[in-house]
Amino acid sequence: MKQTISVKTLMGIFLVPLICSCVDNQRDLFEEPGKLSKDEYFDFDMNQSLTIDVDYGFKNEYAVLFEIYDQIPVEVNSETGSSVKKSIEPIYRATTDKYGKFNEEGVSIPSAVSEVWLSSDYLGAASPVKIAIGADKRISFNQDAYIQSLLAKSPALSRGITTNEHKYLDDWTLLPGVDWDNNGRPNNLSAEKNIPPASVLYNIKSIFNNKDGNNITKNHPEFFDGNMISDIPIIKDTEVSLVFVNSTAGWYNTVGYYTYPTNETPTVDKIKKIVAFPNASPVYKSAGIGALVCGDEVKLKYWNEEKNQFEDKFPAGVTIGWCLQGMGFNNKPKDGYAQGDIVAGMGTRYSTTDLNEAGKDGVKRQRTVSLREEPSNQIVAIGFEDNIDLDYCDAIFYIHIAEKNAIDEGVIPPLPVDPEGPPTNEDNYTVRSGTLLFEDLWPEQGDYDMNDVMIRYTSKVYKSILTNRVYKIVDEYTPFHRGGYLANGFGYQLHNISNSDVSKITIESPSYAQKSQYMSGDRESGQSHPTILLFDDMLIFNGKEEADRKYTVTIQVNDVSEKTVLPPYNPFIFVESDKTRGKEVHLVKYPPTDKANLSLLGTGKDVSRPDEELYYVSVDLMPFALNMPVVDFPIPEEGVRIDESYPQFATWVKSNGKQSTKWYMYPKK
Fold first, then answer.
1. Cα–Cα nearest to 242, from 289, 189, 279, 281
2. Residue 303: C-alpha distances to residues 67, 313, 323, 624 (Å)
3. pLDDT tens-digit map of 273-311
4. Which residues does the UniProt record annotate as the domain DUF4114 (predicted)?
5. For every residue of 485-540, which 3-state class applies, written as one string?
6. Is 327 a member of any domain?
């Protein structure tokens, strides 16, 4: 670190080009301006404030936990064809009200983000959905309108026999008058969506949720002991419907059913496979085309072999089985087939395990799991496995039995009750991460290499499910680079809330690190706002591995707005802490604490105007601290100004953050 001073002719800030002449091998970013108004000073904030407006359009009470990502959060597994979630953190997370609605202003996300992906693993929620951030700084999503827009893109049913002239396999049968469009959406869907109570959806989600590699086969091995029966024995005449819930499959599968006398063993050559859903893919399928949304219902019909006709009710004494044609739906013209045809694909999978072909190991695989919802016994959840990953999420349906006590409940095991049920407070949190950079020669001119103090942070802000108000914050700070030679301490202040808003603070420090000499309790005394000092000198970390430098601070807060506790809050270093506490360096336009030496403001290169609440701005319009929205920001080269290390930095500043928002991704080659 070295200190240099360069003075240039006073000229208008936005009228002159970037100066490239050198003074002591340094240059100012802009010509030194005359006195600017408070708003004319750039705040160097790399975040934008948005309004989020989400409406999933549920008619029944159903709260949904959703997430917003800056990249698509799923990818298709090339081996299994299933969509799997990436191991990335969302940039925002929240819970809707009990009717699937959410509206919040002042949500902060990185400025470089221009489009987001709305995601939720809650059944019935379209996911993932790509949304452009509007010019009005809004993220808006209305599920009903979104689904209608997708369905409108699907070619209309036209010629009537199939009659849309879609080919289908000889060993499959169609229900009377059934046809489908090129995306596989059938024309015999019920007029209204049939969405079960929220408790049922929570239970289905819990059982069939494939999270962190823990799927149903690992969580419930009792369903895979060789005794599972997934076929549905009917003991009283009843109508039966099949209702789509979800699919994570990469394949385009066709799903149907068959029946056989309950007291007989079915064989492939005796059953009649009947198409229910030509393309069992959600309309918002992450890659490719889909056809269905949660609640889409098809009324099944019983094929009466003796009378050679379909009937509305399934009689007592028959059992319903389920079948899935792997890759059965042809999603684009190929091999002589048109889009929308049903093809052999990877073959048929059956709920009757004995009908399935044996694998290389000679074992016939169980392809479905059926679970009966208690106490009604009128809903049976069924999950299909189309290939080899055995998560049984490739097609999830539920069977709706019109008559009570119409199925043999002693055969189908009960659907386990989700122990958590609706989302909990511990599920509802937002993670913010980044890197803090500080120059320590303030208020004099620094070398602006921004590496005197570098600290990584990750903060989890926990919110109440019912109110989305914050009740707990967990901050992790890791000092990882000391480029300055002064004794620099670090702290942060929650400057938008009061001490009375905080009920408890717990600090976990490295075992070797002494507590700040300026803080006796769980926060610094004499401060109007909660202020925490973590250490007094970066020197204590010399020779320590980065993993051994982490501080974890848990703050219990009393139901505050998320907008008032945006990480990293108001971070600062206090310079020459071996001599004084009051020489604070903050982010541009952030206020000093009550312990700061205010006489330093407006001296040297600093042109703060405390009477206007304008702080930590410099005459040459360079920052003394930056909050970077990335945790892996590389250590800047010593003595090289940041606008030289990153050529787009100047454009970003001169445009007031409107251009080159990703400047930090393009270092000088």
1. 189
2. 45, 10, 16, 78
3. 999 999 999 988 866 788 998 999 999 999 999 999 999
4. 314-400
5. CCCEEEEEECCCCCHHHEEEEEEECCCCCCCCCCCCCCCCCCCCCCEEEEECCHHH
6. yes
Q: Where are the beta strands (DSSP E) in 70-189?
A: 74-76, 83-85, 92-95, 101-110, 115-119, 129-132, 138-142, 172-173
In residues, how long is the chain?
A: 669
Strand, coil or helix: 414: strand
Closest CA to 66 of 112, 106, 107: 107
Structure tokens that stand for 373 in this block:
């919802």
Residue 535 belongs to a domain: yes
Residues 178 and 133 in one domain: no
Q: What is the pLDDT of residues 363-409, one digit of tens each?
A: 899 999 999 999 888 999 999 999 988 889 999 999 999 999 999 98
CA-only gyration radius of the chain, Å: 31
d(CA 219, CA 580): 57
| Residue with the larger pLDDT of the pair 586 and 10 | 586
Contact call for residues 619 and 442 (beta carbons, < 8 A): no
DSSP run (H or E) holding 650: helix 649-654
pTM: 0.78
Average pLDDT, the chain: 89
* Residue 19 domain-assigned (yes or no): no
Domain with residue 92: its CATH number is 2.60.40
Same domain, 276 and 349: yes
Asked whether residue 220 is assigned to any structural domain, the reply reads yes
Do 332 and 460 lie in one domain? The reply is no
Q: Read off the tokens for 506.
A: 């717990």
Spatial distance between the Cα atoms of 657 and 48, rounded to a whole number of angstroms: 10
Q: CA-to-CA distance for 6 and 8, rounded, in angstroms?
A: 7
For the chain, the 3-state helix, strand and coil shares in percent, each to the nearest 5, are 10, 30, 60
Full residue range of the structural domain in which residue 364 is found: 158-401
What is the rounded distance in angstroms from the CA atom of residue 30 to the CA atom of residue 23? 14
Q: Using DSSP bridges, classify how beta strands 318-326 and 254-261 pair: parallel, antiparallel or unpaired.
A: antiparallel
Residues 6+ apart with CB under 8 A from 16: 30, 31
Structural domains in the chain (count): 3
Amino acid 30: pLDDT: 53
